[in-house]
Structure formats: C-alpha cells, structure tokens
Amino acid sequence: MDPALNLTSSCSTFEQGCPASSMDVVVTHKMNALNGTTIRLSCIFNSCYKVDNSKFAMNWTYQETFNDTEEMFMTYKQRMTVLRTEKFGDRVVFSGNLEKNDVSFTISDVQLTDDGIYNCYVRNPPDRQQGKGIIKLNVLTELPPPRDSTIAVVVGASVGGILALLILSMVVVKCVRRRRKQELISDEQKIEEEGKTEGDGGTEEGTK
C-alpha cells in the first residue's frame, strides 16, 4: 500500500477529520541576526497529506510592523520563485526541501532594514486549512555578551568577601575604641586614687 494513502486513511479516522485540522507550521517566533551576516529563517509544515507539487502553494512575505502592508518576496506555485524586490535584491535564496516539508529561506548580508516581521503561508490541498508561521527578526549591530554563571559566582564571592572584610574591620575598630576607652577610664581611676592617697597623707602630717 502507498504510504501516502495509508497516512491519509489513518488521518481520516480522527474525530474532527484530517482536512480541517491537520495543517501546522513550525517556526522560531523570535530571532536575532548580526548586521552583515547570513541567517536562515526556518519554516517547516506538518500535513496529513503528501505534497502534490501541482496543488501545493506557499508564500513568504515581509512587513516592517504588524500595521504595515505585507510585501511578498518568495512564492511557490508549481515551482519556487524568488521575487527580486528593491528591498532584498538577490540576497534571498530558498534553502528548504519541499520533500521534507521544509520551505525555509536564507538572507545573506543582513541589513538593519531587514529588521521586521516575516510571514510563512502554506497551503497543501486537500488540507482546507492554510498554515501560517510568524517570525520577528531583530537585526543587531553587535551581539550581547554571553551570560557566564562562573563570572557571576566569582563576582558574588568577591562582593561577599569585601562585605565580610568591612564588617570585620568595623568590629576591630569598635573593639579598639572600646579598649582605649576602658584604658582611659582605668587611668582616670588610678589618678583619682593617687590623689586621694596624697590627700590622706597630708591630713595625717597636719594632725601630728
């Protein structure tokens, strides 16, 4: 039995039916690209039916924001066609594989103006439902530095060590001040006692 026919018959056993709910498009919704580099925007669809090149249809469109008009730059209708637009020129190429349900494309020499929203539309009759994937591409002038947990631990340990030293220093200073204060009190007490002793001696001599 033909695997495609077998797959179709198995799909027809679903409660809601294959044609109404089988189309699914998988994309990475948010992507970052460095200005001047090359990036591949992946779009893979899942369908209950084998692709029939004579019926299959696909469009890639671009829009700067969700409020802007979509501009089509790639389409498939019996054959893949990359539309040469003023925006992309010849920087866009198809890099997917239709036999593997992959309709991805690649942008070379990424520009800051490529920042925006990319829509992947797929229709694979007899699926009646059109699939759609949305990718938000952010073009950066420089990539953010990687987060290193080791550095975070070292910094945290250093800060903790500094705080410990500060606390220890404060305790030492406080102890030294308290000791000096006690020494001053002891000296004052000694002077006071010596004064009393001398006073007592003078009184005794006067009595004699």
From TrEMBL:
The chain crosses the membrane at residues 151-173. It is found in: Membrane. Residues 186-208 are annotated as: Disordered. GO terms for cellular component: plasma membrane. It is a single-pass type I membrane protein. It comes from the Eukaryota. One of its GO terms (biological process) is monoatomic ion transmembrane transport. Keywords: Disulfide bond, Glycoprotein, Immunoglobulin domain, Ion channel, Ion transport, Membrane, Signal, Transmembrane, Transmembrane helix, Transport. Its main location: membrane. Residues 19-124 form the Ig-like domain. This is Sodium channel subunit beta-2-like.
